[in-house]
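Chain A, query sequence.
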Amino acid sequence: MVTALIIVAAIAWLTQLAFGGWQIRRFNRAFDSLCQQGRVGVGRSAGRFQPRAIVAIAVDDNDRISDTLLMKGFTIFASPQRSRLWQANILRNCSLM
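Chain A, predicted structure.
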């Protein structure tokens, strides 16, 4: 009985590691494509029992937001998504707070 619980826990842990690596790989690919567009700033929200969000904003040489990336969710299935919310705004005119 104890051996079965240990095996189930080990399988669950290895599955979580695999899916976590898959999520990181997807975010890194999206982030690398964002870095090709100019300077990039990254921020994240805090909260223990709320969905966490990671936002990356690419800014061109004219301080215009060229692209944004948003990843939000509770689970390892949260995927990076393009967000057009601030696109083409001038950075000094944006209120991001």
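The radius of gyration is 18 Å. The longest helix spans residues 2-35.
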